[in-house]
Amino acid sequence: MATDYYGVLGLARGASDSDIKKAYRRLARDLHPDVNPDPEAKERFQEVSRAYQALTDPDKRRIVDLGGDPFDSGAGAAGGSPFGGAGFGGLGDIMDAFFGGGVGSRGPRSRVRAGDDALIGLELDLEQTVFGTTEEITVDTAVLCGTCSGAGTAPGTHPTTCITCSGRGEVQSVQRSFLGQVVSSRPCPTCAGTGQVIPDPCPECGSEGRVRARRTIPVKVPAGVEDGMRIRLTGRGEVGPGGGPAGDLYVEIRERPHEVFTRDGEDLHCHVALPMTAAALGTTLPLTLLDGEDTDVDVRPGTQAGTVLTLRGQGAPRLRATGRGNLLVHVDVQTPTRLDAEQEKLLRELAVLRGEDRPGPSSEAPGGLFSRVRNPFK
């Protein structure tokens, strides 16, 4: 069923333009997100703004009065147009489509238009993106004018009908061509196609219905977000001209580098330095995790350089899913660069005991590298 846009504004069918504007201003003053942070109020404000758009645009209002919904993709078919759109209902509109104007008028345009989306960056530490946080951001955007509530007029005044186009929003001109006289229409230059002029603009917004303001907005960052992701805040962007519905605000996450940990999706990585003796004999390595908790990592005897130890479930939470990734600990075995006489003597004795005092070819396979090359030819 089509939405009852008159009922959304608390009006009866056939309400005048003045009644529609008064109802919208009254509701917008109480429901706007900058005034009422209640989520239900935000949804109600969007419904009210949508109803205002539908009833202040002549074409959309005609569809509403016929029982249709102007925002429905198929609403134009209700008018019986052979082109499937509400804008081609008669001969004048067809002429307008081909010659840039027509004998019929499409009516004035609404001053109320939807606002633009806004984008702002938010820098966070790795701990904040991994475990989530709530941050406050300061944005400088267009908000609803508090003096006129979007009407654009000075207090106690109202828009008047444009004398250039007599409220039609268009002016017509006649040109001669080889086809005869062609009547073309264009938006009225005096009222910009709205059919109304504001003789006494609002002193606060200058008839725009919106003003620039700096405001602070809380942003809830879910656990597991990554660098470059965007969080959408519906209806927190720019308020449109004429006090139209606000666009959306997108917050782009920018992750600061961490001193110890790096991130690859849901997995975390870190490098630990291990003395040569500890790698050979095995040890228990103390490690502080990203959340600040301490844990012990068991290093087996004979651990080689480049070994990766996996701590399961110690990575980043999976966004929009359950569970966490892993923490991958990369072992960097350190070889001593300076030895005193006693240390050098002990290492030499160890090398003799292990038969490593005279290093030779790798013993990975019998016969060494050259024997592996010769084997295929035997």
Automatic annotation (TrEMBL):
It comes from the Bacteria. It is found in: Cytoplasm. Residues 4-68 form the J domain. Residues 354-378 are annotated as: Disordered. Binds 2 Zn(2+) ions per monomer. Its cofactor is Zn(2+). GO terms for biological process: DNA replication; protein refolding; response to heat. Residues 132-214 form the CR-type domain. The keyword Zinc applies. A zinc finger (CR-type) spans 132-214. InterPro entries: DnaJ, DnaJ_C, DnaJ_domain, HSP40/DnaJ_pept-bd, HSP_DnaJ_Cys-rich_dom, HSP_DnaJ_Cys-rich_dom_sf, J_dom_sf. GO terms for molecular function: ATP binding; heat shock protein binding; unfolded protein binding; zinc ion binding. The keyword Endoplasmic reticulum does not apply. Keywords: Chaperone, Cytoplasm, DNA replication, Metal-binding, Repeat, Stress response, Zinc, Zinc-finger. Its main location: cytoplasm. Pfam families: DnaJ (PF00226), DnaJ_C (PF01556), DnaJ_CXXCXGXG (PF00684). Zn(2+) 1 binds at residues 145, 148, 202, 205. Zn(2+) 2 binds at residues 162, 165, 188, 191. Homodimer. Belongs to the DnaJ family. Participates actively in the response to hyperosmotic and heat shock by preventing the aggregation of stress-denatured proteins and by disaggregating proteins, also in an autonomous, DnaK-independent fashion. Unfolded proteins bind initially to DnaJ; upon interaction with the DnaJ-bound protein, DnaK hydrolyzes its bound ATP, resulting in the formation of a stable complex. GrpE releases ADP from DnaK; ATP binding to DnaK triggers the release of the substrate protein, thus completing the reaction cycle. The J domain is necessary and sufficient to stimulate DnaK ATPase activity. Zinc center 1 plays an important role in the autonomous, DnaK-independent chaperone activity of DnaJ. Zinc center 2 is essential for interaction with DnaK and for DnaJ activity. NCBIfam families: PRK10767.1, PRK14278.1. This is Chaperone protein DnaJ. It comes from Geodermatophilus amargosae.
